[in-house]
Amino acid sequence: MRFWTSWANDVAFATDGDRALEMYRKAQGSGAPYDVVIMDLTIPGGKGDGVTIGELLAFDPSAKAIVSSGYSNDAIMANYAQNGFAGVVVKPYTMDEQYTELRRVLENK
Fold first, then answer.
1. In Å, how far from its chain's centre is CA 40?
2. Which sign does the torsion angle of CA 103, 35, 80, 98 carry?
3. What is the pTM of this model?
4. What angle (nearest 5°) sits at the alpha carbon of residue 93, between those of residues 91 and 94?
5. CA-CA 20 to 30 A from 40: which of 29, 47, 53, 92?
6. Tens digit of each residue's pLDDT, the chain (109 residues)
7. Where are the alpha helices (DSSP H) in the chain?
8. CA atoms of 49 and 33, how far apart (whole Å)
9. CA–CA distance from 56 to each of 7, 17, 39, 51 (Å)?
10. φ, ψ dihedrals at 104, nearest 5°
């Protein structure tokens, strides 16, 4: 999972959903919260975003998360907004596609 702060000037990575939630809570508590989270749909051996998004939004209902996966036919990808996500990027994606979605999500207050 990737976290962006200050419009991508700072990026942090987590290996699974539990670590992502821990990092998100710590950032919120430090007064330097993440602007957006990009979550992979599947985390081998770890908690993926299908579970993590619910826990993230329970902690911070205003959190902005983008789901990312190569499984474009997955129900979460097809219905990302109904599953709590603010955006979606389908792998493989270009930096321009990622930037466009980040910008759209961040500007949609």
1. 8
2. positive
3. 0.85
4. 165
5. 29
6. 555 444 456 788 888 888 889 999 999 999 889 999 998 887 666 665 578 899 999 999 999 999 998 877 888 899 999 999 999 999 999 999 999 999 999 998 5
7. 17-30, 49-59, 75-78, 95-107
8. 19
9. 20, 9, 11, 9
10. -60, -45
